[in-house]
């Protein structure tokens, strides 16, 4: 997020806010210039009140980039750090988890190296015995099964819904961004009702 978004979020919520450090979409193999951006983003996030950081980096052969992660962790400290879903693209998840623990990551966001946390539940259960946070395709319909089946004590989900734009004039001839981007006149927002429902389910189980 931009520093402005982080500042406003910090003013509006009382829960800890962890900031994603991701200079671009695509893979998790970063150039030297992209690493410079990540380090600068970490410093800005800390300056503007981040309570923790989230990032991930891999080598070209699908292993944890220990050299880069160590360098980024040093910039993040003393804040806690989570390794994001780059984990789901590793060659060997059990070896990768051991590496992340040894480096000092507190959490791992993962769908169990599958299309969603429900499909990857068996691996999440094995990982959660050490450190992990289920992520991916979690909804009000499957959260209970995932928490009960994984022994995880935390979870991550978007809990979003689409809201129609307030624009009355709409130019049908222009699209802002690539064809797979969200439509200009549909806005993704956090859904308060979904958050409350998910919270209630989790509190009932945990």
From TrEMBL:
GO cellular component: cytoplasm; nucleus
Keyword Transport applies: no
GO MF annotation terms: copper ion binding
Protein origin, superkingdom: Eukaryota
Location (main, coarse): cytoplasm
InterPro entries per UniProt: CutC-like, CutC-like_dom_sf
Keywords on record: Copper, Cytoplasm, Metal-binding, Nucleus
Subcellular location: Cytoplasm; Nucleus
Recorded family membership: Belongs to the CutC family.
Subunit structure: Homotetramer.
Function according to Swiss-Prot or TrEMBL: May play a role in copper homeostasis. Can bind one Cu(1+) per subunit.
PANTHER family hit by this protein: COPPER HOMEOSTASIS PROTEIN CUTC, COPPER HOMEOSTASIS PROTEIN CUTC HOMOLOG
Protein name: Copper homeostasis protein cutC homolog
């Amino acid at each position: 997020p931009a520093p402005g978004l982080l500042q406003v979020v910090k003013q509006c919520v009382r829960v800890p806010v962890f900031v994603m450090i991701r200079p671009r979409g695509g893979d998790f193999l970063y150039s030297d210039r992209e690493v410079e951006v990540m380090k600068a983003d970490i410093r800005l996030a800390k300056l503007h009140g981040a309570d923790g950081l989230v990032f991930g980096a891999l080598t070209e052969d699908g292993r944890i980039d220990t050299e880069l992660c160590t360098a980024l962790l040093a910039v993040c400290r003393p804040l806690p750090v989570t390794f994001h879903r780059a984990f789901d693209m590793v060659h060997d998840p059990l070896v990768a988890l051991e590496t992340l623990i040894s480096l000092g990551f507190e959490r791992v966001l993962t769908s169990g190296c599958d299309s969603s946390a429900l499909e990857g539940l068996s691996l999440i259960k094995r990982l959660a015995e050490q450190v992990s946070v289920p992520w991916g395709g979690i909804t009000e319909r499957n959260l209970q099964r995932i928490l009960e089946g994984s022994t995880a004590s935390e979870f991550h989900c978007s809990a979003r819904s689409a809201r129609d734009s307030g624009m009355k004039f709409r130019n049908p001839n222009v699209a802002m961004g690539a064809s797979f981007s969200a439509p200009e006149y549909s806005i993704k927002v956090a859904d308060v009702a979904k958050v409350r429902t998910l919270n209630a389910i989790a509190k009932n189980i945990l």
